[in-house]
Records
---
Amino acid sequence: MTTASALLTQAVQDLAGAPKEGLGEEKDSRWRGRRIVRVGEAWHLGVILLTDTHALATAEVLRAADPGRRGYTAESARARAERRALALRGGFHEGDVVHVGWSVIDVDAVDAGGSSGPLALIDGVPSVRWSQAGGFMPLEAYLRERVPLLLRGDAPT
């Protein structure tokens, strides 16, 4: 039986040399104010982020940018622009992709028959829920689709 940890370890090996995206964490200090700072980097495979040592569940994805002076028709657009500016203020470069709010997936729990984040063991098969509304699909097939896309540089975000 193939385990989730074996599949993810193989994916990390296959992705060696492929570009990674930034992992950010929100910080707030009296001297520097609110900002999103870099705490690492990972390969973005849809609902999964892979580092050299961990699997993470994707949450908020944004691109660091100066909000400039614009009029916003929606408050949500203004809030999103402010979040992009926090990443820029935290040291990311203009245009960098930043993942914030991610959580560590307990791959050992999945291998033991449980679930963690988007991963679960379904009828003995390591599986991934590829969207909040979607069902589970085998993790092996998911990675077989996503890894080559990222290696070619045309992975969907």
---
Amino acid sequence: MTERRNEVLAVLGELADAWNEGDAAAYASHFTEDADYVTFFGMNMPGRAIIESAHRALFEGPLRGSKLVSGGGEPKVRFVRPDVAIVVSGGGSSLSGGAPEPGRESTLTYVLVEEPGGWRVASFQNTRVSDPAAGAPAGGERRTLG
């Protein structure tokens, strides 16, 4: 399983490289056509085309020049079937290109599937790390983009 684990982690490395280069097409290419991408504020972006479009707007606008950084130690990789992997890892982003800024740390969950062209992300969720004692946002309405 070490080789397969390395293949899965390589995809995540390529995702980070594409983000760090601001390349929305390369970033989205690592997702399945029907992927679900749940943002840190709970919005779902269904499908590769929407993932690409949304990230293009982000990379050209408020996240221009941002960098992804790993965090929280070694990612946990679990194969639920030989062709399906779940990865839970820490990470964050930096708008200045340095260390993650306070409030930008996340726990990231990926579900990857092996397709004929290699491993792709079928589902992704970014959950911001927060202090529950500080209070939770009100509301809770589920939102979907697309």
---
Amino acid sequence: MDLVAACRAFVSVSEHGSFTVGAAAARTAQSVVSRRVAALEQRLGERLLDRSSRR
């Protein structure tokens, strides 16, 4: 796992409040951003983001 890319993906999603918007802002596919955040969560052993479709 590229830890820097995973952290950047997390920050982008956090700042934009959405995986879709965060991925677009980072100019990365949403599926890639989702996988990177999931890998970061697994490495840290904690859930970082709520993935529900409701805010």
---
Amino acid sequence: MKTARTLARAAIATAVLGTAVSLGAGPASAASATTASCAYPYVCIQRLSDGAIIGRFQDVTSGFQSLPSRPSNVNIINTRHDDVAYIRYANGSQACVAPDSTFSITGYVLTGIRISSSATCS
């Protein structure tokens, strides 16, 4: 019985995770959460080509933290349970990554990230 309950919880969690909301002209799509290589309470940048974590962020900030590497073709993995993460594209547009979700970016360059204590994208 315990195994069935665990599987049911996992199925519900999988259905809930992976929600991301785009703000402005953000060119990205939502993907299922992949947190195996990004531990709580981090927001990580994961390269799509090989799955390597190329950035980890933990602090809530009032402004964007610059990304000197200017990555593209990455996942943004938000393992935080109650905080959203905003990402900034090179063209100035922004997107919001909901708590406990992953946001995939292909073909566009990122220049900044900001973790907010807000629990929802608004």
